[in-house]
Amino acid sequence: MSGTAQIGVTGLAVMGRNLARNFARHGYTVALHNRTAARTHELVEEFGEEGIFVPTESPEEFVAALERPRRLVVMVKAGDATDAVIQEFAPLLEDGDVIIDGGNAHFEDTRRREKELRERGIHFVGTGISGGEEGALHGPSIMPGGSAESYESLGPMLEKIAAKAKDGAPCVTHIGPDGAGHFVKMVHNGIEYADMQLIGEAYQLLRDVAGYSPARIADVFRTWNTGRLDSYLIEITAEVLSHVDTATGKPFVDVVLDQAEQKGTGRWTVQIALDLGVPVSGIAEAVFARSVSGHADLREASRHLAGPTAKALGEDEAAAFADQVEQALYASKIVSYTQGFHELAAGSRQYDWNIDLGRIAAIWRGGCIIRAAFLDRITGAYEAQPQLPSLLADKGFADEIAAAQDDWRAVTATAVLQGVPTPGFTAALAYYDSLRAARLPAALTQGQRDYFGAHTYRRTDRDGTFHTLWGGDRTEIES
Fold first, then answer.
1. What pLDDT, in 10s, does the model give residues 19-50?
2. What is the mean pLDDT of residues 371-398?
């Protein structure tokens, strides 16, 4: 078989199948491979009219179907399955060929794979893809890493199939070397966790404090989606809240078990942030909130714990409270993105990736799960100040939080007094207050550490490192 396909996809579950169809719809000849050949033939039978597909049944046949340089997209489960596919196909490839991993791989695995394949003359492109199965078909946000040379070959194809922002720009860019693409996708998902948690807390407050029904809360979210909170997640939240379960006639959210699952990327975001020394408390609380929800036995055993008596709000009070919740949600959302972009910057420095934060915000404007109107403003903030140390250092965002903070504080205070858990809102507010505090209790912490472990400390009045000889006549000595 002579190579006629411009790109190939192996792993034809929902994401892989839809990505292959997306390429075909944009005029590319697409080679197909799956460990179970029946799935390959099913795709051609069902969607063959969408473009030109080349079905294959063996790795050798698949590789032979690809034109040089071969571009091979791997869409299998992250981890051992990805390594197995690479080991199967790499011996069949030649210098300059490209393997693209479109799964949710850990970026350190991607760095290892890229190095190993680079030594064999093969390009490895760890690629974050966001947008779910619909995005894979109609246009996702795409975050490819790897060499600049590999992007020259692959980039134009990705730009054609990617989502387009409102200004027409494709939601894809070359992120940086080795694992940069998967790192950015990991942080994207961490922000997604925080965003979803904050939306969930807003819903809970409107239900438990304002006394609104799910259908009415859906209307509130629809209204919010016409303003500064305009985003995909706010849009689908309204849809979920307005849905009625056909079997029971109850609101859909009332028949769903309140135990949230997770696939690991949010947890990785927090773990890596700890390694980098970056405070992502809002993202961390979102991860822990999912963990708490899953401990049904712990929650059941705690039903006897006392809490405050809920205070019913009148109609006018409830409406005013809903407005305050919008302010708290927006301010907390800004903090979540601030923390995520701080981690991106720290990772870029640590691994020498030279990530363009403005470009990251730009490619998240369409296709991805966290796409939102205010990403335009984040893009603008980084374009104006590429070395911006924090989104909160941008005057526009700082002014908005200043205007929102009274309502933000009132909402968190009400949540505490009413016994409604809002770890995302409160963690975001604590982060904001920590940044604006003139002094933090870390001075006391350093004194304690020096007392029990001689860990030393620095002083405010002179340079150097010091240790106090505790007990008896206390003496400060320079270490």
1. 999 999 999 999 999 999 999 999 999 999 99
2. 95
Q: Which of 192, 201, 285, 326 is catalytic?
A: 192
| Active site annotation includes 395 | no
Task: Annotate the chain with three-state secondary structure.
Answer: CCCCECEEEECCCHHHHHHHHHHHHCCCCEEEECCCHHHHHHHHHHHHHHCCEEECCCHHHHHHCECCCCEEEECCCCCHHHHHHHHHHHHHCCCCCEEEECCCCCHHHHHHHHHHHHCCCCEEEEEEEECHHHHHHHCCEEEECCCHHHHHHHHHHHHHHCCECCCCCECECCCCCCCHHHHHHHHHHHHHHHHHHHHHHHHHHHHHCCCCCHHHHHHHHHHHCCCCCCEHHHHHHHHHHHCECCCCCCEHHHCCCCCCCCCCHHHHHHHHHHHHCCCCHHHHHHHHHHHHHHCHHHHHHCCCCCCCCCCCCCHHHHHHHHHHHHHHHHHHHHHHHHHHHHHHHHHHHHHCCCCCHHHHHHHCCCCCCCCECCHHHHHHHHHHCCCCCCHHHCHHHHHHHHHHHHHHHHHHHHHHHHCCCCHHHHHHHHHHHHHHCCCCCHHHHHHHHHHHHCCCECCCCCCCCEEEECCCCCEEEEC
Q: Which of 60, 159, 185, 333 is catalytic?
A: 185
Residue 192 annotated in active site = yes
Q: What is the pTM of this model?
A: 0.95
